[in-house]
Amino acid sequence: TISDRELAALASETELMADAVRTGDGRTFIAADDRFHRILVDAGGFQQIADIIGRVNAQLDRVRYLSTAQPVRSRVAVREHRALIKSLRARDGAGVADQLRRHLQGSRAVIRSILSEQS
Questions:
Q1: Long-range pairs for 90-97 at CB < 8 Å and ≥24 separation?
Q2: Angle between helices 47-67 and 93-118 (to 10 degrees)
Q3: Could you give phi then psi for residue 69, rounded to 5 degrees?
Q4: How far apart are the C-alpha atoms of 119 and 111, rounded to whole Å?
Q5: pLDDT tens, 36-57?
Q6: How far is CA 118 from CA 39, 59, 115, in A?
């Protein structure tokens, strides 16, 4: 049910993320990533998920800032976002689910790696 306007907003935030990776601007990357995820959650009508994300985001921000020091993951995240947008535009539900799964698995692996380094 995502609108063309929401798809355009997702694409715009993804390109801001790509620019931030090129310039090494972690703050801009995270801000655009936050907006990307908020647009996606709002488009899906998942207010409860948005509430949960809001509560845990502050705790995850430190890890997220540390992850921007790994530009490889940031570049991968941009590619994953682009692939997700492509599946959304195609109205490919299975493709969307697959892209989301891959993105979350990659993010989880980075979080685990950073947390283990910090221990």
A1: none
A2: 50
A3: -75, -10
A4: 12
A5: 999 998 998 888 888 887 787 7
A6: 31, 14, 5
